[in-house]
Structure formats: structure tokens, C-alpha cells
Amino acid sequence: MPAHFQHPWRSDFPILNIEREGAPLIYLDNAATTQKPQVVIDAISHHYATNNANVHRGVYSLSQLSTEAFEQTREKVRCFINARSITEIVFTKGATESINLVASSFGEYMFHQGDEIILTIMEHHANIIPWQQIAEKKGCIIKVVPISENGTLDLDTYKSYFNSKTKFVSMVWVSNAIGVENPIKECIEIAHNNNVPILIDASQSIQHLHINVQDLDCDFLVFSGHKIYGPSGTGVLYGKERLLEVMPPYQTGGDMIKKVTFEKTTFADLPSKFEAGTPNIEGCIGLGASIDYINGIGIKDIVLHEQGLMKTAIEAIQSYDFLQILGYNGSNVSALSFTMKGVHPHDIASILDKKGICIRAGHHCAHPLMQFYKVSSTSRISFALYTTHDEIIQCIDELASIYALFS
Ligand code: PMP
Description:
Number of strands: 17
Strand content: 15-25%
CATH architecture of the largest domain: 3-Layer(aba) Sandwich
Largest sheet: 7 strands, mixed
Shape: globular
Order of helices and strands: EEEHHEHEHEHEHEHEEHEEHHEEHEEHEH
Distance between the termini: 33 Å
Bound molecules: 4'-deoxy-4'-aminopyridoxal-5'-phosphate
Number of domains: 2
Structural class: alpha/beta
CATH topology of the largest domain: Aspartate Aminotransferase, domain 2
Number of helices: 13
CATH superfamily of the largest domain: Type I PLP-dependent aspartate aminotransferase-like (Major domain)
């Protein structure tokens, strides 16, 4: 591998040693999913090779070992986001399921005809459709906070939306489509000044920013394991205990009950009440390994490294007038969206693929945001802790060649 592609953390990720199209893999689609370090891969195979049994059920020691390893991850997640208690950490299969859980359970319990829910125009579909579904069922209204051209949330409109009918806010912290960071603490304060609970979609923050849910004081926070160097099919819902306590179960079945008779079922305490059925045991154990891995490096160093990458990318993209960045306001975190004059994003991504460079082309599951920018798709580059400055420069140099080819 050429020296300029080397990075202290890179060698921890076996896939990054693989060549694609005769060149080292340049993976710049980290907002879609991150690559996995060897320690995560090892944790999963170690579990299968030595500890595998179902959790929370067996009195035999193998099941207890499996349960311990699984539950250790809950404590690791609690510590990582500084939740007050492990009762506030619910395992799900991803951010999507976490949001669906809150929308349908909290919505079922709290929403009534004419109530209002606040979202923003930059939400991922996973933070739109669950709210639409419950709004339709309960006769609620969704209000959408706009942004300015550079991606900045319109806080005046946000503030003006609150009234006695407002029941919930659900908002992304960092946009997956344009990388803009919302002033999340301020947004939480505004919601709370109006006595409205707020869910934070931290899918694109958990791997790039330091998160402290007690300091943020958010009511719910969600993320996916696969975006934080962990396995797919794992996710977390953080919720304040007093809210989770009063919410009805989302799914029902084994492992979430105290007692079942054909007349009546009583439900288990938190967090089991929201974890029906056999969970993704090995996935959660892998997630625990990914959190250990991040802690081993230190989120502060990751933040610094990725801020440097953003500076490199912005300067390089802005040096070409045929590239137009969508939604850049200086707050962007590890993702940038752009268009190229006269060239379709899918053509760009296909040509880069032939050079071993993976970037995302499409609507990024954010149709309303694409409609706002009057485009059907964009090209997006997104970074991770193993991304190097040279990879970004090489990718952007290739963009110049593609533009030359098409013009
Ligand atoms: N919200 C945001 C901001 C995301 O980026 C994503 C994934 N792209 C999701 C929600 C949904 O995550 P998942 O598909 O892992 O459930």
C-alpha cells in the first residue's frame, strides 16, 4: 500500500487492505455504513465459537456467559452516551426501528386528534414516515421546519411552531444527506421551554461527536450500530426512564413479560418490556467491541481527525467551479453533498467505482430535502476515522478528470 494511504487506525480494518480495480480501496460512503475493525469481527466469531446460547433464559452456565456478554454491551452503551441507567438503553435493530418504536408506542399513548408533531425538512425517511403513519392513525398534523439555502435550520420558524397542540419534536442532529449539524442543544431547550418532548436522530452523530444525553437533556436518542463500526442489525433507543415507563410495548412475545395467562399478560420491567423475542445477541456483542474500539482511540482524537478531513475536502471542492456544494454552512460533520455541472451523480459514482473509489449517488433517503434543493440526486462523500487526506484529494482529482471527460 502506498505510504500516503497509511494511517495509524487504518490497519485495524481488514477490508481497507483489499485492492479494488488494482488500487487500494477508497471508501468514502461512511454515512451509509462504516467498515468493521478486526476486533469487532473477532468478538462475533469468539461469541459463536465459545459462548453461544440464548440470553435471559438458561440457568446453565453457557447461557449465563452469553447473557453477561450481551448485557455488558448495554452498560458500555450507557457509559458511552452517559445515560443515567441501563434501564434507559433499549436494543433495537437500528435507528429505523428505534424511531418506529417511539412513534408508535409514544404516539399511541400520547397523541390525539389535532395534535401537532414537529420535524425538519432535512430528515431521513426513517424520521418522517413513522410519524406520518401515527399522524394518519391519530389525526395529527406534521409541521416541517425549513432551512436556508446553506442548510441552516430556521430557528425562528421552529420557535413559532409551538402551541398548546404541539406534542412532539423529532429532529436529526447531523444530516446524512448534506452533513449539516443542527444546533441540537438549543433545539432541545426550545422544545422543553414549551414542555414538549424531543427525539434526536443521532445516526450521523454517534460516530463523529461526543454525546452526553444527560447534558443534552434529550428525551429520546437513537442510532444504528453499523454506523459506529459495529454490526448491522443492531441499534439503540435511549429514552428517559419516566417516559419509557409509561409507554406501551411496541412488540410482544417472549422475554418481555412478567406473567402470561390467557386472560391477561403483565409486562417485564425496562428495558426488557421493549425487547420482545430473541435479540441480535452476537450483533450486540460486536457493538460492545466497537464501542471499546472507539474508546481505545478516544472520540476527541476522532473528532479532530475528521475536522481536518472536512477542511481538506471543502478546500479541494471549492477550488473547482464546476462542483457545487449543497448545504454547507461551516458546521458540516464528515459528509458533503455536491453536484457537478452537466454530469449525473450516478455517472460520477460509476466512473469512480472503476478506480476503486466508493462514493454515494442518490437521494440519500431524503426526498423532501432533494425537492428543496430542486435536484433528484447528489453525489456525497462521507468520512470515518480511517479516512485519509490523500484519499479525499485523490477522489476530488478524479472528479476533475470526469468533468474534463464529459465537457
Ligand atoms: N437517520 C439518519 C440520519 C440516517 O443517516 C439513517 C441511515 N442512513 C437512518 C436514520 C436509518 O438508519 P438505519 O437504516 O440504520 O436504521
